[in-house]
Prior knowledge:
Radius of gyration: 28 Å
Strand content: 5-15%
Shape: globular
Distance between the termini: 8 Å
Structural class: alpha/beta
Strand order of the largest sheet: 5-2-1-15-12-11-10-9
Amino acid sequence: xxxxxxxxxxxxxxxxxxxxxxxxxxxxxxxxxxxxxxxxxxxxxxxxxxxxxxxxxxxxxxxxxxxxxxxxxxxxxxxxxxxxxxxxxxxxxxxxxxxxxxxxxxxxxxxxxxxxxxxxxxxxxxxxxxxxxxxxxxxxxxxxxxxxxxxxxxxxxxxxxxxxxxxxxxxxxxxxxxxxxxxxxxxxxxxxxxxxxxxxxxxxxxxxxxxxxxxxxxxxxxxxxxxxxxxxxxxxxxxxxxxxxxxxxxxxxxxxxxxxxxxxxxxxxxxxxxxxxxxxxxxxxxxxxxxxxxxxxxxxxxxxxxxxxxxxxxxxxxxxxxxxxxxxxxxxxxxxxxxxxxxxxxxxxxxxxxxxxxxxxxxxxxxxxxxxxxxxxxxxxxxxxxxxxxxxxxxxxxxxxxxxxxxxxxxxxxxxxxxxxxxxxxxxxxxxxxxxxxxxxxxxxxxxxxxxxxxxxxxxxxxxxxxxxxxxxxxxxxxxxxxxxxxxxxxxxxxxxxxxxxxxxxxxxxxxxxxxxxxxxxxxxxxxxxxxxxxxxxxxxxxxxxxxxxxxxxxxxxxxxxxxxxxxxxxxxxxxxxxxxxxxxxxxxxxxxxxxxxxxxxxxx
Length: 605
């Protein structure tokens, strides 16, 4: 796969979409093309030119209606997808001598799977490439495959579907699903055997590189219905803040049934929040003096002793079984705790600090402290809580997030400094908390604990998956020392639900395309966390639906919504309208992806 973020920076002088040899290319960038004003593909042509993906001729023309040869197309692919991975050995085509101007690009296009040759080991470099070959090439090189039934899709979308060569039918179906099919002037006619023009190829590349963010008018893009998978994560986080779904057995029963009726299949109820467990815990009783607390200390609307005598987690599991919902408890607070909590008061030596000796950080208006993730007593306490859950309850897994890391400004407490000195010939940690070696040392220690945690959880309950709901990798690592990409590579995570709470769809898509996200989804199910709203920050259903469509379009393993109450509340839309919107997204039941041993998981990058 290519890296969307870097493709515009990697080439300074590019040869593409030009019918002239390299030696006669313009010596400086052109300000505009004189022959594309008002052309149907003008927006794509100008966008790719501004990104230095394409060039024109010395007379400042682009010649949009001129055909493109196979050699020229290979050169365009080399420029547009510099980070596409290769999977084939190079071939010396008999009609492509080493001295030929496009030989390096042809070799690369073949190795990356974009283009193949003809019988007799020929490439036919000067042959005009048909539109169908251009689409098949993009689908092959980008490793796309159809998600729906190809014949049905093609027949419904195109009047000349019967003229598609048999070898290309699956590829054209995949190209349609990925929005690569551009037809002008008649959207329903592929004209698959017609030579691809320079405008055609500009539009195809624009769609392949930018997808939904492409500037090309949707009037010319074949928009296939996005298939609804038969297997995907359909999750919801259940919280005890701004929500009362966990506060009574009746609320929990109604909430779980409501989600099941809307064809959800997973819930992530919080079980560790504000320094307390939300289930009866002997570990918490011993360490904090209190076995459980459902209501947070800031909640003035409920009795702080509400739920005493209940086992919310046991009830959730029972309702999950009744309604066909996975129950994966969410260990929300991780190493974080309120500064005035019993946990912090009883165990001050468990707390870490900044270089100036301060311990408290403000999360909004709430003072927080952080347990020292490098301290063996802290590690044992957290591990004991996790093992208590997977041992005593029939959970489907346990979910962790960035709070199983540590804000990177912390780690200057006496214990951690002493540990660092032992491993660095008596030298103290760098004053700069973002020092690369200091970041890496602490992140590696957390990774080592994560490895121990995974091993012990699986020993206690092999069927309980270890799920993770992190922020994007760069933020998680730089700000929370949570190197989840390494955790995934080491096999310490069996499901990821990446928190992408973004309003801007372009930013949302960029995050989906990051290399570490693409790498993870090749190994395990990677779903996307979508914000359904907060009190004071309503999210319209149209945004939610668009983000779900993008997730499906890109072949991710599903979605989870943060959080239950905001799915129906605090919006300009009525609860009935919101519920109808979710029903349209999930009209049928779907299994959750299989993750144990990754036996049945296949991603579609």
